[in-house]
Amino acid sequence: MSEVVKLEIDGKVIELPVVIGTENEKGIDIKTLRAQTGYITIDPGYKNTGSCFSSITYLDGENGILQYRGYPIEQLAEKADFLEVAYLLIYGNLPSKKEFDLFKSSITRHTLVHEDMKRFLEAYPFNAHPMGVLSSMVCSLSTFYPESQNPNRAKEAIDMTMHRLIAKLPTLAAWAYKNKMRHPFMYPQNDKSYCENFLYMMFAMPSEEYKIDPVVVNALNTLLILHADHEQNCSASTVRIVGSSQANLYSSIAGGISALWGPLHGGANQAVIEMLDQIMADGGDMEKWVAKAKDKDDPFRLMGFGHRVYKNFDPRARIIKKACDDVLDKLGINDPTLELAKKLEKVALEDEYFVQRGLYPNVDFYSGIIYKALNIPSEMFTVMFALGRLPGWIAQWKEMVENGDPIGRPRQIYTGETKRDYIPLEKR
């Protein structure tokens, strides 16, 4: 017999079924709670609420485990190509060589964006934040592909929408940067890999040859894989709830990009560099700022340390630390801010205060260092995050649609005024 939870409310006992996931995660199914009792649950931020059943990502924060479709993140980051991981997340399995070649070819053939989109880009002010530009540009794709707004189109057409989005996001991201810098746009080249193409469109200039460093390509590939999905986080949940209204994929992903923009979510790696710049501007006295971080009465907090989900070491941080070291060693950069970051890392890994509290450097700390080393402006850091997270968002949207999940509609407990009568303006 299935396990149940008995709940007594107003003298009435009801039974709620227990659901168990494949990794022995347990939950209480409360779908019938309101119908049976008239009560709802209150869970600000949904910290204890499961919004869906999902087979995409398994995350165990207490034990530092992250798996995509059952594959440990350590194996994928070391051995896989980012597009392999994208296929895995979206379709459920690693592709065969034939499947991967077809998938990669489809992505490669759709990297160009309509020339009219350049007019949109050029209309933005030079200081427009790239995330605002990216979100609106992605949403605009739906107007160039109006068939995407039909939720009942054929599977092949849905696949094409997903492939187009994966293909075009690096182009839009790179062009957002180029427009901000007022540099000429560089078009994608079909002989380059996904990561190579992005770096080319970001940094190449028409006037000279651009040489792509394989160490940098490998670091970017690793970063994108580490960011590819992270269970039901703020932006993934946003994509699901927008898509639950049968909104098209482009607008659903635009919602995810906007959610990722916030400093409490994807903006954390930008905050790392801003924090380091703040310490440098104050004279670079690291001990002073570490002491401020330890002072519970001081509002200052070290950015890029600890994680709201991982109670142990962030497994992604272990992986990206090596890529970070490789990039800094290969490029031989002499940057005081990066030197400060390495000293801060050493303190956090050895100081008993940080060790006891699990405040280890996380993936945002190391990704921020890598992006700065690559001369990517801090405002572009969250765009880079979005580039990696795209396959996860698409997989979440696709799973939600295929499972026939209902439209998202949270409840509330009303705390406003009770009924009162309208008073004409002249009598108020």
Précis, in short:
With 428 residues, the chain is mainly alpha-helical.
Please tell me about this protein's structure.
- Helix content is 52%, strand content 7%.
- With 428 residues, the chain is mostly helical.
- The strands form two sheets. It has a three-stranded antiparallel beta sheet with strand order 1-2-3.
- It has helices at 33-37, 73-79, 82-91, 97-108, 116-123, 130-144, 155-181, 194-203, 214-226, 234-243, 249-260, 268-281, 286-294, 315-331, 336-350, 352-356, 363-373, 381-402; strands at 4-9, 12-20, 26-28, 57-60, 65-68, 71-72.
- It has two domains: 4-65, Rubrerythrin, domain 2 (Single Sheet); 73-403, Citrate Synthase, domain 1.
- Helix 12 (268-281) crosses helix 17.
- The chain starts with a strand and ends in a 26-residue tail after the last helix.
- The radius of gyration is 24 Å and the shape is globular.
- It contains 18 helices and six strands.
| Count, helices | 18
Question: If classified by CATH, what would the architecture of the largest domain be?
Answer: Orthogonal Bundle
User: What's the overall geometry?
Assistant: globular
Can you write the helix and strand succession as a string? Answer: EEEHEEEHHHHHHHHHHHHHHHHH
Distinctive features:
single chain; 428 residues; mainly alpha; Rubrerythrin, domain 2; Citrate Synthase, domain 1; three-stranded antiparallel beta sheet; 18 helices; 6 strands
List the topology elements.
Layout: E1 4-9, E2 12-20, E3 26-28, H1 33-37, E4 57-60, E5 65-68, E6 71-72, H2 73-79, H3 82-91, H4 97-108, H5 116-123, H6 130-144, H7 155-181, H8 194-203, H9 214-226, H10 234-243, H11 249-260, H12 268-281, H13 286-294, H14 315-331, H15 336-350, H16 352-356, H17 363-373, H18 381-402
Antiparallel strand pairs: 1-2, 2-3, 4-5, 5-6
Helix pairs in contact: 2-9, 3-18, 4-7, 6-7, 6-11, 7-8, 7-18, 9-14, 9-18, 10-11, 10-18, 11-18, 12-15, 12-17, 14-17
